C-alpha cells in the first residue's frame, strides 16, 4: 500500500496580522520525514512508474511526498531536505504563473486574508453574491476545511465554490492591487523556470492545471485548456514528459467524470486528490488519495 503526504507552504515563520497561511517549518518537515522513514520505505518516482502494481498490492506500507502550487520555498527548503534524506517526490505546479507571469487567484486570496479580517472579507463576498450560506453549505465548508475556524472555512468555501470564476477574479484583483505589487509578489512566491527544469530532470515535476481552478466546476472548453495547455507548457519548457497531475483543491467537486476522462486522454497516468487515506491495488491511479501533512505522524492532527 502507498501513503502519500501532501504539503504546500514550508517556511521558517508564519507571522501575519490574520492567520491565513499555514504550513510546516523546515525543521518540522525534516523531523516528519524521519518519523515516516521509521514507519515504511519511501519509493522513488521511478518505482511508482515502473512497479505501481506491486507497491499498491503489497501489505507493507510505502511512502511518497508531494508539494502543490510550485512555491519557491518548496524548492529552497523542501527539496534540499528531501535530497539530504534521499527522498523523492512530486512538485505540482500551475503553468499560469510561469507563462503569463500572473499570481494565482488562490494565492492572492491567501495574501489578502493575511491582512484583512476574515469576517469582513466573508461579508463583502456574500454581499457581492447577493446571498447567504445555507446550513448545508456551512456544513460542507467545515467538512472540506476541517483545520480552519468556522469563518475561515466559510470564506474559503464561498470563494472556491460559489463564485463564477470571472466574477471572483475581478473582485479579488481589485482588492489585491490595493495591498500588493504583483510582479514583486510573483518573483518572491514562485519557483523560477530553471528550477522547474531541474525538477523535471529529476523526474519530480507534475501538472497542477493551468490556473488552479476547481476543474469539476468549469465548462468543457476551459477544462481542456486547464489540463492540456498546462501539460504542454511544462513539456515544452522542460523537454520532458509530464504524466502526473494533482487536482486543485482535490475534493470530489474537483475531479468529476469529465475531468478524469480529459486527464486520461491527455496522457496522465497518475492523478492525486486530497481525499484522506492509503492507496491499495483497488484504487484508481487517477484518483490516488493523499494525507494532509497535518494528519501524518508528526503532524498536529495525527492520531495513532
Global Rg: 19 Å
Query: Please, how many domains?
Result: 2
Number of contiguous helices: 13
CATH class descriptor name of the largest domain = Alpha Beta
In whole angstroms, the N-to-C terminal distance is 18 Å
Q: Structural class of the helix and strand makeup?
A: alpha/beta
Number of strands: 9
The appropriate CATH architecture of the largest domain is: Alpha-Beta Barrel
**Uncertain ranges:** none
Share of helical residues: 40-55%
The CATH superfamily label of the largest domain reads Glycoside hydrolase/deacetylase
Question: In words, what does this structure look like?
Answer:
With 304 residues, the chain is of the alpha/beta class. The protein has two domains: 207 residues, TIM Barrel (Alpha-Beta Barrel), CATH 3.20.20.370; 79 residues. It has 13 helices and nine strands. The strands form three sheets. It has a five-stranded parallel beta sheet with strand order 6-5-4-1-9. Strands 2-3 form a two-stranded parallel sheet. Strand 7, helix 13 and strand 8 form a beta-alpha-beta unit. Helix 5 packs across helix 9 and helix 6 runs parallel beside helix 8. 38% of the residues are buried. The mean pLDDT is 94.
Amino acid at each position: 500500500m502507498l501513503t502519500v503526504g501532501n504539503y504546500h507552504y514550508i517556511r521558517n515563520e508564519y507571522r501575519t496580522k490574520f492567520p491565513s497561511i499555514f504550513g510546516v517549518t523546515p525543521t518540522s518537515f525534516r523531523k516528519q520525514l524521519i518519523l515516516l522513514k521509521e514507519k515504511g520505505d519511501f519509493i522513488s518516482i521511478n518505482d511508482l512508474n515502473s512497479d505501481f502494481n506491486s507497491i499498491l498490492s503489497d501489505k507493507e506500507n510505502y511512502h511518497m511526498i508531494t508539494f502543490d502550487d510550485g512555491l519557491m520555498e518548496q524548492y529552497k527548503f523542501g527539496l534540499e531536505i528531501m535530497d539530504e534524506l534521499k527522498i523523492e517526490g512530486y512538485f505540482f505546479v500551475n503553468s499560469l504563473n510561469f507563462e503569463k507571469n500572473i499570481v494565482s487567484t488562490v494565492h492572492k486570496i491567501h495574501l489578502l486574508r493575511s491582512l484583512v479580517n476574515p469576517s469582513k472579507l466573508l461579508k463583502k463576498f456574500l454581499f457581492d453574491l447577493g446571498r447567504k450560506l445555507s446550513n448545508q453549505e456551512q456544513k460542507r465548508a467545515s467538512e472540506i476545511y476541517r483545520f480552519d475556524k468556522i469563518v475561515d472555512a466559510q470564506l474559503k468555501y464561498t470563494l472556491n465554490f460559489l463564485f463564477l470564476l470571472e466574477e471572483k477574479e475581478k473582485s479579488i484583483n481589485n482588492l489585491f492591487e490595493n495591498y500588493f505589487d504583483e510582479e514583486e509578489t510573483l518573483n518572491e512566491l514562485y519557483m523560477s523556470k530553471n528550477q522547474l527544469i531541474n525538477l523535471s530532470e529529476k523526474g519530480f515535476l507534475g501538472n497542477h492545471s493551468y490556473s488552479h481552478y476547481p476543474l469539476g466546476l468549469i465548462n468543457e472548453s476551459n477544462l481542456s485548456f486547464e489540463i492540456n495547455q498546462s501539460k504542454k507548457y511544462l513539456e515544452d519548457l522542460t523537454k520532458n514528459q509530464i504524466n502526473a497531475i494533482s487536482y486543485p483543491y482535490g475534493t470530489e467537486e474537483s475531479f468529476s467524470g469529465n475531468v478524469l476522462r480529459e486527464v486520461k486522454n491527455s496522457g496522465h497516468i497518475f492523478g492525486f486528490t486530497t481525499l484522506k487515506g492509503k492507496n491499495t491495488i483497488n484504487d484508481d491511479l487517477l484518483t490516488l488519495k493523499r494525507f494532509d501533512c497535518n494528519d501524518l505522524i508528526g503532524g498536529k492532527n495525527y492520531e495513532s
